Amino acid sequence: MKMTKENFIHEFKKRLGERYALDVKDAAPIELYQTLVAVVKSGYSDIWRKTWKSYVKNDQKQVYYFSIEFLPGRLLKSNLLNMGWYDVVEAGLKDMGLDLDQISETEVDMALGNGGLGRLASCFMDSLASEGLPGNGNGIRYKYGLFKQKFVDGYQIELPNEWLTDGNNWSVARTSKAVDVLMGGQVHLHDNGKYYEVTYEGADLIKAVPYDTGIVGYHNDHVNTMRLWDAQIPASEEINYPTIEDRRRVEDLTSVLYPDDSNYEGRILRLKQEYFFTSAGIQSIIRHYKKYDRPLTEISDHIAIHINDTHPAMCVAEFMRILLDEEHLDWDVAWKQTVQTMSYTNHTIMAEALEKWPVDMLATVQPRILQIIEEIDRRYVEELTGKKDEDFIERTRIIKDGMVKMAHLAIIGSHSTNGVAKLHTELLENDVLHDFYELYPERFNNKTNGIAIRRWLQVANPTLSKTIDQTIGTKWRFDSKELHQLAKYDDDQALLEKIGAAKRFNKVRLAKVIKEQTGIEVSPDALFDVQIKRLHAYKRQLLNLLHIVKLYLDLKEDPNSQQVPRVFIFGAKAAPSYHYAKSIIKCINEVANLVNNDPTIEGKLKVVFLENYGVSLAEKIIPAADVSEQISTATKEASGTSNMKLMLNGALTVATLDGANIEIKDYVGDDNIFIFGLTKDEVLAYETNHQYRAADYYENDPVLHRILDAFVDGTIPNIEVEGHEIYDSLLRANDEYFVLRDFAGYVATQERVSQTYLDQAKWNKMCLLNIANAGYFSADDTVEKYATDIWQIKPNVEVQKGAIDDVYPF
Ligand SMILES: *Cc1c(COP(=O)(O)O)cnc(C)c1O
C-alpha cells in the first residue's frame, strides 16, 4: 500500500489524539512536531530492523565510523525527503491548516560538533545509508551541544545548549546493549605461561549506554544506525558513588562537547571522553562479532573501523587490548588484524591541532592502554632499528619526550591514511608526514571531502531544485553527477533568468530572517557576499573585514563613487578561549554598527553578522549567497566543505588556491571562479626563508595604511582594545597568515567580482556552471571511494530501489 495524503492525515490525527488528547487546532507547535516525528519514525522502524538483520543474514562486512563529533542539524525534513514522504506530508499538513516549514523550525538542531569535521561525519552517514552501504556511526551523546552564541555590545557570549530538555525524539536508548568501560586505577599483569592475566585495582567502572538514531537512506529501503554513547553509573557500583559530586564525576564524562575547532585542549576530561567512546564502541563491535561464532583471526574480513581524525586513535590500542587480554591472541596475530581493520583520516596539518597527550595523563586515564601503546612503540622502534637512521626513528615513533603522538599511533596502527583534498594529501605525503609516506607509501591516499547534495540542495533550496527538474528532469536527485547536464544550457537565456529568479527568491527569504533577527534592512538587489565558517585566524575573516573597511572609507571620501551595492554576511562562532578570534568578532560587529547606521552610506553597503551559526542557519544563508568567501591562507584549510555547499547553490567563489578550492577551480575553469593570493609554494617559501615583512605593505600601500589606522585612531568606534590587538598582530607579530600580503590581490579580485555582477546574464551563466559542476562533490561518491579503496565493503544486496512509501507501515 502506498503512503498517501489521506493515510498520512488519518495517522497524524490518530497519534495526536492518542498522545496528547488534542485536535489539530488546539495543539502547540511542539506537540505537532513530536507527533510528526512519531509518524515518521514508525514509517522507517520496520525497515531499520530489516536492514541490520540483513547484514547478519548475508554476513556482510560493515564499517564503523568513529567520530568524536556528529553535526546532523535537524532531521525532520531530511528524513521525509529520503523516505519519499516529503511532498505528501507537506500537502497533508497544509490540508490540516499546518505548515511543514513552521513545524520543522520547532526541532532543536542536533549540534554535537563544532564545524566541518562533525558535519562531514553527518554527510557521510547520510551518504552511506543512501548508497545502501553497511555503515554505522559511533560517537558521544553530549548532554550539552555546541554553545549557543549571542552578541552583547558586539561581544560573543556563550550560553549552554541544552538540546535535550524536550527529549530527543529521533534516538532510542538501548539499555540492554550497554557495556562497561574501565578507567583509571592501577593495572597488574601476571604471566601464567600462556598469556598475561590482567587485573585492575581501584579503577572506575562506567556504564556506557548507547542511544541509536536511524539514518534513512534515500529512496532505497535502507536505514543505518548512528550510535552515540552516554556515561552512567552501573547499578552494581552505586555504592561507590555516594555523593552528588561523585555521580557528577561520571555524568560529566559525556556532558559537554569541547568547543575548539582545529585546535586541541589538552584537558584530561577530553582524553577520558576519547577513551570512553572508543572503548564502548570497540567492545560492542567485538561482542556482536563473537555472537556469530566466527574466529577473531579473521575479524578484519568482516568489519572495518574508521578513525575520523585522531580523537578515536585509541581504537588501535583498545582493539589490541581486547584481542590480547580478553581473547588471549598472540601479539602478532592480534596486530595483523588490528592494522587490517583500522583506517585513519587526517584533517589538518596545523601544529596546534595535532594531538599530543602526556604519558602521565594517559596513565591516569587508562594504564593498560598506555602499556599497550608503549609496547606498540617499542616494537616499532625495534623493527626499524638497523633499517632506518636513528633520527628517522625518533621523529616517527609514537612516544617522544613524555608525549604520546596520536597521529603516529593512528598511522602505524592502520592500513590506510588519507587526506581530505588533493593539495592536503600532497602536503601530507611530501611534507608533514613525509617520513611515514617513505615508510608506508601504499597506505597513503586521497579522498576529497564531499557534501550531502540532498540536504544542501533538495532540502535547503526547493526553488532552485524545481528549476533544475524542469530543465534536466529528476535523475540528478538520485545521481548528482547528472547535474552536469545543466552545462549544456549555458546559453539558454530563459533558464539563466530562472536561475537568477530563484536566487532572488532566496535572497528575499534571507532578508526577512535578517530583519527578524537583527532589525537590519537589506535589499535583495544588492550583492550578498557570504563568509560562514568557524572564526579562525587562518580562515582570514580579517581579510574580508579590511576590504569592507576599504569600501566604507572609499564611500566616505566620495559618496557618489559608483560601487555595486553589497551586503556582507557573516556567520561564525569562536572557541570561548580563543581570545584573538573573539576580538575579530567584536571588530566586525563594530564595523557593522558604524556602516549600517551611517546615513551617507545608505543602500550601498551593509554588514550583517548573524548570531549562532549552525546547520539550520547555513541552510537559510547558502541558497541566498551570491559570493562565497573561501580565503584561507594557502596550505591551511585541509579541504573546506562550505565552499562546495555554496557553489552547489549557485554562489561564485572568491578563493585562494587552498584545500578543495583548487578542485573547484579545475572543474568550473578559471573563468568561473575568482582566484587570488599566495600559492602553496609561496607560503611554504615564506615560512622557511622568513623574508616576509608585513610592515612593508603597511608602509608602502597608502590604502592599506589608512585602513589599518582606522582600527586604532577612533575611525571605528568602541574597539580601543581589540583594534590595537589586531593592528599589533599584523604589524608587530608580523601577520602570521599573510593578510597584508594578499590584500591588494584580494581587492583587485573583488573589483572584478563587482564588474561581473553588473552583467547579470554573464553572472547567471557562471552560477549555472558552478551548479552543474558541484555534483562532483557529492559525499555519495566520496563514501563509495572509501568503501572500495579502504573499507572493502559492498552495498547491501537487499537494497531495493523505491521509496519507503511503497511499504506503508500502518
Ligand atoms: C559546512 C559547515 C561547516 C564547514 O565550513 P568550512 O567553511 O568548510 O569550514 C561548518 N559549520 C557548519 C554548520 C557547516 O554546515
From TrEMBL:
It catalyses: [(1->4)-alpha-D-glucosyl](n) + phosphate = [(1->4)-alpha-D-glucosyl](n-1) + alpha-D-glucose 1-phosphate. It holds the Pfam family Phosphorylase. GO terms for molecular function: glycogen phosphorylase activity; pyridoxal phosphate binding. SUPFAM superfamilies: UDP-Glycosyltransferase/glycogen phosphorylase. GO terms for biological process: glycogen catabolic process. It is an enzyme of class 2 (transferase). Signal peptide: none annotated. The modification N6-(pyridoxal phosphate)lysine is found at K645. GO terms for cellular component: cytoplasm. Keywords: Allosteric enzyme, Carbohydrate metabolism, Glycosyltransferase, Pyridoxal phosphate, Transferase. Its cofactor is pyridoxal 5'-phosphate. Its EC number is 2.4.1.1. Allosteric enzyme that catalyzes the rate-limiting step in glycogen catabolism, the phosphorolytic cleavage of glycogen to produce glucose-1-phosphate, and plays a central role in maintaining cellular and organismal glucose homeostasis. Belongs to the glycogen phosphorylase family. This is Alpha-1,4 glucan phosphorylase. It comes from Ligilactobacillus apodemi DSM 16634 = JCM 16172.
